[in-house]
Amino acid sequence: MVQGGDYRQWPFLTPEEFELVCAFFDQKYVRAKLGPTRKIFKIRLRRTLTTGSCYIEILRLLQLPEETDDLSLAFGKLNSGHDGLGVDIDMLTAAEDADQVSGCFFQMSEKALRPQLQNQHGGAIDDGALPQYSLHSHQPYATYEVHLHPTYNMPTLWFTLHDLPMSEPTFDLESVYRYLVPPEYKSRLRAAGFTGGISAAPHPVTDVPAFFIHPCQTKEAMESFDCKMANYLMIWLGLVGGCVGLWVPPEMAAEEAEEA
Questions:
Q1: Which residue, 140, 165, 246, 251, has fewest beta-carbon neighbours within 10 Å?
Q2: Which domains does the chain have, with CATH numbers?
Q3: Cα–Cα distances in Å, from 163 out to 137, 172, 215, 218, 246?
Q4: Distance between CA atoms of residues 170 and 121, nearest Å
Q5: Which three-class secondary structure state does DSSP give residue 98?
């Protein structure tokens, strides 16, 4: 049974409801025991400077450098954020200090958060074939953002690539398929075309060209779930994010289970 009573018109969201579901999602991230995952997977609740509307920003390293110094630089980049027209709504206080770091957990996090890269023929690329980065170089990462679509009144997932090797353009659909789309989703996304698949348009905040997952089919997918506001974005990202390599850490769901 759908929790339609929590919403004005399930599964659509008003701007006020979208702010609530974003706040719940950010709270789950802050309170979850993520360990080193918090270093390579950053979630921020942000607000635009122009309209004051809120949105979720997620930063994810595309690959982990082997050198400790390179890893520290990459972590620093995700901690410091990147250029944009938004400001952080910072709820992250002692959460990072509370996380326990272990080598075993670190290896598990790496496998869970980074999809295996594929070559142009669909085969896996060996780690040794990946570009190597020096102490002073940047690390490739993806920025995902969740904005409320003004027409569909549903969350919409926007994403961009950053700091790829010089020979690979960041605003390029083939780069998206190479770095973000898991093999099991590639044929389905290509067949979907622009409606229901990967589209491109000016970013809703920066107006810079960016990619997004078209929200036209999200309503039907969400209607089959029993979903309270506290879990709305968790379920929505579970439906939408995987096709472009975005999975919510399971510890964010485990945090709620521990309270029950």
A1: 165
A2: 4-93+127-259 (3.30.1460.50)
A3: 9, 13, 27, 30, 18
A4: 20
A5: helix
pLDDT over 50 (residue 112): no
pLDDT at 58 over 60: yes
Q: How far apart are CA 52 and CA 87, in angstroms?
A: 10
Tell me: cis bond preceding 115? Omega within 30 of 0 counts. Answer: no
User: What mean pLDDT do residues 179-194 have?
Assistant: 85
State both tokens at 9: 């018109």
Kindly state the average pLDDT of the residues 224-232.
88
- 216 assigned to active site: yes
CA gap 249, 111 in Å, rounded: 12
**Around Cβ 161, how many Cβ atoms within 10 Å?**
22
Helices (H) and strands (E) in the chain, counts: 10, 7
Rounded Cα gap, residues 21 and 233, in angstroms: 6
Q: 165 is written with which tokens?
A: 């090797």
